Amino acid sequence: MNPRHRRPVRHPPRPGLAMVIVIVLIGLFASLCQTLTILVALQHRQAFHTTDQAQTHRLADAGLLRALQRLQLDPAWQGETWQPGIPGFEAAKVTIAVQSDGDHIHVTSDAAITSSRDRVLQSRQSITITRPAASSAERQLP
After folding, report:
1. Is-contact 83 91, C-beta < 8 A?
2. Whole-number Cα distances in Å, 93 to 6, 8, 67, 81, 138
3. Cystine design at 108: which of 81, 103, 115, 126 (Cβ 3.0–4.6 Å)?
């Protein structure tokens, strides 16, 4: 037999091999899609949490500004509980406390927001104010 005229070797037919390969590839693609969907959902949730926390922080800052404004009008003011209406949130509450310590005034603003997903976020801001020294004319008055 001449080596140039060899018959090609025929492999036995393997029915369904292409189907198995396609099913494996579809499974890998589905797994990749599921992983990406979970990552997007986590990032979406984290973005909402960051936004809600920033809103709570701003609300505590607003409580400090409110306290400073009230103290300018009435130096004997001791604080309050304020419940502003904030769109997109179930409830919001700011507790402002003022403590006087000789030459210093300590103002604390505690803010709590209940989100529409029933999560409560809290933030605390505080500031210490030094009272201005009394003028010589004020010291002489009885």
Report:
1. yes
2. 90, 84, 14, 7, 39
3. 126
- Whole-number pLDDT of residue 2: 60
Asked if 122 contacts 94 with a C-beta cutoff of 8 angstroms, the reply is no
d(CA 95, CA 80): 6
Q: How far apart are CA 53 and CA 115, in angstroms?
A: 10
Per-residue pLDDT tens over the stretch 46-84: 998 898 899 999 999 999 999 999 999 998 899 999 999
Q: How do residues 103-126 score in pLDDT, each as one tens digit?
A: 899 999 999 999 877 889 999 999
Task: Tell me how long the chain is.
Answer: 142
Tokens of 131: 């009272």
Residue 132 structure tokens: 């201005």
What is the model's pTM?
Answer: 0.68
Domains of the chain by residue range: 16-140
Report the C-alpha gap between 1 and 46 in whole angstroms.
Answer: 75
Amino acid code (one letter) for 53: Q
